[in-house]
Amino acid sequence: MILLHMIGGLTSLTSGAVALSSPKGGNLHRKVGMIFVYAMLVMSTSGAVMAAQIPERVSVIAGLLTFYLVVTALLTVRRHGRGFPWMDVAATVFGLAVVVLAIVFGITGSNDPAGPPPALAFIFGAVALLATFGDARILLVRSLPWHQRIARHLWRMCLALWIAAASFFLGQSDEFPEALRIMPLLCTPVLLVMLLMVYWLVRVLFTQWRPAYE
């Protein structure tokens, strides 16, 4: 399980970096993006299972939230809008389950001073709640304007990548060689993902940008 988690994590970080830097909408972006999706699903699932066995509550929430963000981001660009939207219903229910677990783990974690800060569970829960509101909106309107649909896909994928990057570079910083344990250096890729997410959100929502291939 650990080896599977490591392979999924390294693959997701590499493919995510390529997807962010490649022309949006092109063949490379699409193909590498699917590799990123599969790798993230493997990484998040295995991470949540291993965290549950310890147990490490905040990591369980992080894994479930990452899984949820990646799946719903993919559904955003793969939706056909026909028939009963059972996938959107399932996504909404899953998102609500993550919110409830985050609240429960946050409350119980406050009684464990040796564990991770319970505030992290509440933060992840707040993100899941925000995303769940978006899923509920999809159930009501069934379609979104182009720029809103791409923005929804973008922030969910980038936030999932940010969680993976933060877990690797910051959460596992003690596993790096001592010469590389320089916090500004380890923080750089984590901050870069967030900055690129903001850049692309602004470009998609507030300019006339369109990808090479829609």
Would you give an account of this structure?
- With 214 residues, this protein is mainly α.
- It has a domain at 2-82 and 147-206.
- It is 78% helix and 0% strand.
- The chain has 7 helices and no strands.
- It has helices at 2-21, 27-53, 57-78, 86-109, 118-141, 146-170, 183-206.
Topology (elements, then pairings):
Blueprint: H1 2-21, H2 27-53, H3 57-78, H4 86-109, H5 118-141, H6 146-170, H7 183-206
DSSP summary, beta strand count: 0
Distance between the termini: 38 Å
Mean pLDDT over all positions: 87
Number of helices: 7
User: Based on helices, strands and strand pairing, what is the structural class?
Assistant: mainly alpha
Largest sheet descriptor: none
Question: What is the N-to-C succession of helices and strands?
Answer: HHHHHHH
Rg calc? 17 Å
Shape type: globular
